[in-house]
Design brief:
Layout lengths: L6 H26 L10 H55 L6 H24 L1 E2 L2 E2 L6 E5 L7 E5 L5 H4 L2 E2 L1 E4 L11 E3 L8 E9 L6 E2 L12 E4 L11 E10 L8 E7 L7 E4 L4 E4 L2 E6 L15 E7 L3 E7 L2 E2 L4 E3 L5 E6 L4 E6 L9 E10 L5 E3 L2 E4 L5 E2 L5 H54 L3 H27 L4 H4 L2
Helix pairs in contact: 1-6, 2-3, 2-5
């Protein structure tokens, strides 16, 4: 028997510590729910679990990426839905313009709507964005990460969908002001698309340098002491030749000088009359200024009676305007008359036309007015590294201003509709593909999560049994330690 070393107590203590440590680990697992709380719990299992966990997180994020990609595609496809609607309307307008029951004015209205529709197609292309990325300007070329690992992605791009790229925009022509000193014509506008950019002239000629002409009095000499005196600066403003009958309809009651105070006149042979007041013997009819009275003193010395009649012929003034450039005349000369304020010059067949605003009395014989025509071009957007650096421009819509051009436009619009259909179809296919991708990612994530759980998560029932066992063993070891500590006391029996 020895008393320096209590080997039984040492053994009991060692086993009690082991059991206590095992119980502590079991309690740790039960409280965390994890079988591996530190690398020492299962070094190989930890490495495998972490690799699986990376895959699971990547799969979940890839699923989220795919959902975002679908949202991007749906945004672009929704915009193209409106582009499709606009193109269908443009096609309807082209069909409408292709029939000759429409006048030039009707086609101008159709063209005006077509221009606005083309501009809206381009505006949609310029402004449709997702997370600040432009989708339809032609610069989009995205890569979608749809897997947990490097290289597991798909590429997605969208062609430019502006009016110019689709072929439903045209270049616009604009006319500027006349050169200094050439303002014989009030202005020019609506330059036809067939005109080339450059200098143009409008040459003016008129049958009379000031106005229409007035013939001699068919009843006799106008310069007699009692008659109708036509002033030298008469300006007949009628559009057609007219035979005038002028009668005195009122005279003053002054017995000494029966001065005419009102006249009436007819241009239909006396079937109907209009009245005109006289002021000091002077009257104005359709721009003509004339007097009743003595040739020397027309407002005095001549006595009139109601019914005095005079007749004369007035010849209407006409003029011609000719559009030309350095290559020669464009179209034929166009006649104008006093009532005209706007006239279309040039050739309608090839669209080389321009509208001239005029005031007839301002036209001067054999004069030219010079102006310039500039061109506003439609264009696609410019992109660099997927970023739009210059937006697309639609100056005007496709030309439907004539039967021939409208018929040709139908084919071009059909082609544009096909292009948009192809792009929308591609977007729809990508969307369906991504939906399948999301389903596959979800399945993979679920199965990997199950495998990772088997490695990392604790079996609560099994671990609870292990904890109970270690706890009981720890208590038993503690009791045995107490027994072992009493063994050296037996030596005292030998020392009595």
């Amino acid at each position: 028997m020895i008393i320096n070393h209590n080997l039984m107590a040492n053994n009991a203590l060692r086993n009690m510590n082991i059991n206590s440590n095992n119980a502590s680990k079991a309690m740790e697992k039960l409280s965390s729910g994890l079988r591996i709380n530190r690398a020492g719990d299962d070094a190989a299992g930890l490495a495998i679990s972490e690799k699986m966990r990376g895959q699971i997180n990547g799969l979940n994020q890839a699923s989220s990426n795919s959902q975002d990609a679908i949202s991007l595609i749906q945004t672009g496809e929704g915009a193209l839905n409106e582009t499709h609607s606009i193109l269908q309307r443009m096609r309807t307008l082209a069909v409408q313009s292709a029939t000759d029951t429409n006048t030039d004015d009707d086609r101008q209205k159709i063209q005006a709507e077509t221009d606005q529709l083309a501009k809206e197609i381009t505006r949609i292309s310029n402004t449709t964005e997702f997370n600040t990325q432009n989708l339809l300007a032609g610069g989009l070329s995205d890569t979608f990460q749809i897997g947990a690992n490097s290289g597991q992605n798909i590429n997605f791009s969208v062609n430019a969908m502006d009016a110019f790229t689709l072929g439903v925009a045209d270049n616009a022509k604009s006319a500027n002001a006349f050169a200094a000193g050439d303002a014989k014509i009030d202005g020019v506008q609506n330059a036809g698309r067939g005109l080339d950019a450059g200098n143009y002239t409008i040459t003016v000629s008129k049958t009379d340098s000031s106005a229409g002409t007035v013939s001699t009095d068919v009843n006799g000499d106008l310069t007699n002491t009692k008659g109708l005196v036509i002033s030298s600066y008469d300006k007949f403003t009628g559009d057609v030749d007219a035979n005038y009958i002028v009668q005195v309809s009122k005279v003053s009651e002054d017995a000494a000088d029966n001065t005419a105070t009102e006249i009436k006149y007819s241009t239909d042979g006396g079937n109907s009359y209009k009245t005109a007041a006289l002021s000091s013997g002077v009257a104005t009819i359709d721009g003509m200024i004339f007097t009743l009275g003595d040739a020397g003193a027309p407002t005095s010395g001549a006595k009139f009676t109601v019914g005095d009649q005079y007749s004369f012929k007035a010849t209407a003034a006409t003029g011609t305007l000719q559009l030309s450039n350095s290559d020669g005349n464009i179209g034929g000369p166009v006649s104008v008359k006093y009532s005209d304020t706007k006239v279309k010059l040039g050739s309608n067949e090839d669209g080389k036309t321009v509208d001239a605003n005029i005031t007839f009395k301002n036209l001067v014989d054999a004069k030219t007015s010079t102006f310039k025509v500039g061109e506003v071009e439609s264009s696609a957007a410019s992109t660099a590294n997927g970023v739009v650096t210059k937006e697309a421009v639609a100056a005007v819509g496709i030309d439907v201003s004539s039967q021939t051009k409208a018929s040709s436009a139908i084919t071009k619009i059909n082609d544009a509709i096909t292009k948009v259909s192809e792009e929308r179809s591609k977007m729809g296919a990508y969307q369906n593909r991504l939906e399948h991708t999301i389903n596959n990612l979800g399945t993979s994530s679920e199965n990997l999560t199950s495998a990772e759980s088997r490695i990392r998560d604790v079996d609560m029932a099994s671990e609870m049994s292990e904890y109970s066992k270690n706890n009981i063993l720890s208590q038993a070891a503690q009791a045995m330690l107490a027994q072992a500590n009493t063994q050296p006391q037996q030596v005292l029996q030998l020392l009595r």
